[in-house]
Amino acid sequence: MRTVVHTRQGDPAQVLMLKEDPGPPPRPGTGQVLVRLLVRPVHPGDLAGVEGLPGLPEQRPPEVRTPGVEGMGVVESVGPDVRALRPGQRVAVFPAPGTWADFVVVAADRAVLVPEGVGDETAALMLVNPLTLLMLHRALENALGEHEGPVLQTAAGSSIGRLVSAAAVRHGLPLVNLVRGASGARQMRSLYPTLPVIATSDDDWREQVRHHTGGRPLQVVLDCVGGALTQDLVRLLADGGTLITYGRLGSGTTALEELPLVQRGLTVQGVTVWHWTHRTPDERAQDVAFALDLAQNTPDLLEVAARYDLADVRAAVEHARRPGKSGTVLLSSERSTGTREEAVR
Predict the structure, then answer these.
(1) CA 324 to chain centre
(2) Of 4, 74, 151, 182, whose Cβ has the fewest other Cβ atoms within 10 Å?
(3) Do residues 241 and 259 make contact, with C-beta atoms less than 8 angstroms apart?
(4) What is the pLDDT of residues 322-345, one digit of tens each?
């Protein structure tokens, strides 16, 4: 059994290592299933968990820790009291800490049957990002209230950013997209020609935002960049506006005391997919149904950048960090022949 582990926080390319254990895989307990994982994504949140959050003391794992919270595989065995699943079925799992391994034990209710016709790679991506989209949509609706917008989102070329753009086009949301550079802007314009796209590499990007909003201040900003960009985003917000933050892709820091929250009545709201587990079973079932529908009918929204063998985790991490990357990098438990990188689409 192969497992990617780290014993301390730091640069994933430096602290991650592959551990091989000749012993048998773990056994599922009551209400659990053992899943033989085939594919799992490299999400920004996975890397953030390895690196640690800026400004916080290093959190040393008890002994070793395995990254990953999502993946797709085959049920290997089931524990007592599991009736809905059986060995051999394809499932997607979330939340399932430790998916960067050949096997993972999860609660049976965290394993979702993969419909026929949905590919392995699509199934590996069909939970975290679509569920995050739903979490953001709810936060956005609450923040807008009776306002219709406009709304700005950062890192629009990211996997979640593209999902947000697709939803905005479908629902008529006045969304303005921010990307890092000109190439990303061209790509987003080709995908969503009705949505304005602005590159923050342009010196006048703030003026461009104001132009595309008709001079109206922003009611909401969806931000997964943070860092030094936060000051500029807050300046673009209307008084009483909301900054919804759900990631930390940017560099630098902005102290909370530097933001005019009280003077301008601003709200900063954090959103994480981990809070999805607090929803009721019926609500979670509805959300999973949405994710399944997206995977079956619009799988192109769950784009894959490349696929690497689990043993090549450091190369996968390097690719996941590349500026302008399109799609999500996957880690596979199936060793490929030929080159180590298998470009997809």
Answers:
(1) 16
(2) 182
(3) no
(4) 988 899 999 999 743 333 344 333
